[in-house]
Amino acid sequence: MRVLVLGAGIIGLSCAEELLRRGHQVSVVDPAPGSGASYAAAGMLSPSSEVWHTERDLLRLGLSSIELWPSYAGRLGVHLHRTGTLLVGFDRGDLQHVERQAALLESFGAAPEMLTGSAARRLEPTLSPRATGAALLSEDHSVDPRSVVEALLSRVGRARDDPEPRECDVTVVATGARLPEPWSSLVRGVRGEILRAHTDDPPTRTIRGWVHGEPLYVVPRADGGVVIGATAEEHDADPVVTLGGVARLLDSARLLVPGLDRATFIEACARDRPGTPDNVPLVGPAPGRDDVILAAGFFRHGVLLAPLAAQLVADHLETGHLDPALDPRRFDVAAARVDADRLVHAPSGREPTYRKDNA
Ligand SMILES: Cc1cc2nc3c(=O)[nH]c(=O)nc-3n(C[C@H](O)[C@H](O)[C@H](O)COP(=O)(O)OP(=O)(O)OC[C@H]3O[C@@H](n4cnc5c(N)ncnc54)[C@H](O)[C@@H]3O)c2cc1C
């Protein structure tokens, strides 16, 4: 098949790479590859730490996808951090959040190991002695999404100027939080602000939890880098970093992992998570256009779900297989026919400046 992929974030690129592996001709168009949510993401591969009561499908998908990650990371040559997640409560109220999450996971048949504050600190000495307790999610991993995007970009093709639309059999729309019309209402932006720092004394595993009611995570990288995130805010404007957001993240992080006080500040950035009305991704035919496949709306889990999304999209194109939970046609969108040219040239008010193409 000749496949045009719109969007070179982690989802579009992982789909493109899988399709190339299966022998299809693939072109990828993006005005700014890798600059969307995938640029900000912390890279936690954690199917269960923030899953909620109504999100059994998300847990199922996340558990399937995390199984793919060891071989996926190996193939791409990126480091997979395999030390799990410690879900921590700072004060007694925060511990109730941890206990609620543990009870929910138990009801899903995936009970985590519960630890007292001192046991958690023995496991993770960077943790504050004031932490009241924790749950250990030992099967979680993390990756650096920027390395993943780089590895995928180098596999999918070299950048070159080629703004002309190509003949294709099918278009995969993977434009993150900005879907072209008439599907734009299927995805909304949920701003996340996130910090990067460097320390000589990073935690060994992802520390995630609540500090005086504020959710927080600290994700270590192999080189002493740490990622501290993230705020979450529904909004209509551009995703910008706010002083309030940075202050809240720093206050919470320094309480939970006090050694971060001496860390070197590197960067703050903000991007929109692509959320759908039910927070479950869209993978399958676009309402009103069978030759357009949506691969979007991955919200908080796009990095985790990238290898699975790639397989689902490729399987769908080859066999018609569809996971009903992800079918975009579960939402009622006016079935308008869209001119293929408009998809490439004016879907979200931004003109593509170049195309990555190996076809
Ligand atoms: C702060 C933060 C932390 C996160 N942490 C995690 C985490 O720890 N684990 C996890 O699994 N997920 C995490 N996520 C979610 C994850 O980042 C997203 O789900 C994922 O990056 C979505 O990937 P994507 O390729 O769909 O979108 P994006 O990465 O946003 O890529 C979309 C691409 O489409 C391009 N584009 C836009 N319009 C057009 C157009 N008209 N034509 C062509 N191209 C276009 C953009 O330039 C962009 O490159 C986090 C998100 C945020 C914001």
Polypeptide structure, described:
The chain has 9 helices and 18 strands. Helix 3 (56-76) crosses helix 8. With 359 residues, the chain is an alpha+beta fold. A hairpin with a 2-residue loop joins strand 11 and strand 12 (214-220). Helix content is 31%, strand content 26%. The strands form 3 sheets. Strands 4, 5, 6, 10, 11, 12, 13, 14 and 15 form a 9-stranded mixed sheet that branches. It has helices at residues 10-21, 37-40, 56-76, 92-107, 117-123, 145-156, 243-256, 302-319, 340-345, and strands at residues 2-6, 25-29, 44-45, 85-89, 113-116, 133-137, 141-142, 159-160, 170-173, 188-198, 206-211, 214-220, 225-229, 233-234, 264-275, 282-286, 289-296, 355-357. The model is unreliable at 345-359 (pLDDT under 50). The protein folds into 2 domains: 2-44 and 145-187 and 277-342, FAD/NAD(P)-binding domain (3-Layer(bba) Sandwich); 85-138 and 190-273, D-Amino Acid Oxidase, subunit A, domain 2 (D-Amino Acid Oxidase, Chain A, domain 2). The structure holds flavin-adenine dinucleotide.
In short:
The protein is 31% helix and 26% strand. It has 359 residues and is of the alpha+beta class. The protein has 2 domains: 152 residues, FAD/NAD(P)-binding domain; 138 residues, D-Amino Acid Oxidase, subunit A, domain 2 (D-Amino Acid Oxidase, Chain A, domain 2, 2-Layer Sandwich).
Bound molecules: flavin-adenine dinucleotide
Enumerate how many helices there are, as a single number: 9
The helix/strand class is alpha+beta
Largest sheet, in brief, is: 9 strands, mixed
Mass-distribution shape? globular
Q: Over all CA atoms, what is the radius of gyration? A: 20 Å
What is the CATH top level name of the largest domain? Alpha Beta
Q: Please give the CATH architecture of the largest domain.
A: 3-Layer(bba) Sandwich
Beta-strand fraction estimate = 25-35%
Note the gap between the termini.
10 Å
The secondary-structure element order is EHEHEHEHEHEEHEEEEEEEHEEEHHE
| CATH fold label of the largest domain | FAD/NAD(P)-binding domain
Mean pLDDT: 90
State the total count of DSSP E strands. Answer: 18
Helix content: 25-40%
Overall tally of structural domains? 2
Name the CATH superfamily classification of the largest domain. FAD/NAD(P)-binding domain
- Uncertain segments are 345-359
